[in-house]
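Board work, copied verbatim: cyclic-guanylate-specific phosphodiesterase
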Amino acid sequence: MGRSRSLWLLAAGTGGLIVLAVGFMFLVNSAESTARIDLAATMASPASEARDFFQSLEQIHQIADAPCSPAFVEKLRGIVFSSLLVDDAAYQRDGKTLCSGLGMPFDQLQLPARPDFVAGNGWWVWSRVSFGARSAQTVTVIDTGTFLLILRPRDDGAWPQRPDELLSWLRIGEHGRTEVVFGTDIGLTDAQLHAARTRWTQAGIVVPACLPIGWDCYTLLVPWREIAEQHWPLLAACAASGAAGGLLLVWLAFRWMRWRYSPGRQIRLALDHNEFVLRYQPIYDAATGRYIAAEALLRWPQPDGSTIAPDRFIPVAEEAGLIGAVTRNVLRLMSQDLGAWLVQQRDFSIEINVSPEDLDDPLFYGALDEFVVGKGILPRQISLEITERRLIEANAGDCTRRLRALGYQVLIDDFGTGYANLDNLDALSLDGVKIDRSFTVHLGDGSARSRITQAMIELARRLDLDLIAEGVETVPQMHNLLYQNVTHMQGFLFAQAVSANELQTLRPPAIVAIRQMQMSGWA
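↓ predict structure ↓
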């Protein structure tokens, strides 16, 4: 009990955590969206300038005139004038400047031997270069190999416009190497930065974004504290929803477990997986000394080697509405086991237990056609034993008359133990009855049940009904039945339930007492 309670509490807690986690992820996504909007605003000016720069550079490379020709210089000058960012552009060869658009003194550039940054495409970038009269200010110089470009002076503090939470400004260099312009390097690779992949840290969530053109990337930190402060009503609602979700999950889990482990479902699965088997207990005819029939008994083998008897699962099948499927399965198994043999043994019959619900089920009659007539078995070789665990419907008489008209034998099973037996004898069209073991064991002991058994035998004989005694286990019981002219017997005295293969080769026991009584005229 304690373990089950722990499982339910665990399920409730899990449900609550799931709902809370969904709510928390919603908050994180909301905070991430806001951060991306801030980043877009941060990168608006750099992105515009980057687009202008690359557009200008593309136009320069499209100049078809001979380098440094008057037409070339004129077009270069026009491009520089129209650019928002490019201060001048010069054509160079073998490291020497040959001409420029505005004629600025490129030879006065004080370029260090190593650039501040090498872009992924191989360009060299110097971000703070003193230039002639502008030595008080710095310019950015980019060497593309063919051209040397000077970008207008800019205030690094103003570009980008950094919000308070801007964590870092990064540049993607050659071979995808990440270089930090300012801030903290959180270890994101080139691919992760361009994929805008969010990272969770102890301080908060880090949202990256890169310029659509160029090599600059930025990361923005959204602290967990800020998320909690801005969205605490929603967090509270998520917590409440989590508790409600946990209770709902407990209820659903309880319903699922009841369904998953319900006996009815286990029977349905056993039917689907063909887990049931049949065993056959022979019926002995003391008048001829041979087996004349066998009752098909359903068994349910278990993985551990044990077997579940029908008195445990048949009532469950009836409650679950599966008794019809069970009966049809018995007919199928019987035809598989003994169909060919019964065609050769026309004097042998099989008794099949059926429920009152089967009598009015069209599928039952379809199964009889398929597994009996369809296999070449004669209907008279099949005896249908109606069990009396439930009240037999009023129209059962019409059903039994229909079955007998088709050639099947109809018996009442476990006579004396079910519902309204005398009424059934009057209402049903029957060929015989089977005396239940609970009466057979009291034969000859002088008890009330012994006298009731004698009365039942006499009643059946007056109604011209065949009699089969079940549960015959001792010779005195057999003697008493023979004395009352009951010759058809079933029980451990003659044979236990056997497989189909064993039934086909089974020989009657040599019971001397039977022969002696036959000789004396008792049988």
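The CA atoms of residues 4 and 10 lie 10 Å apart.
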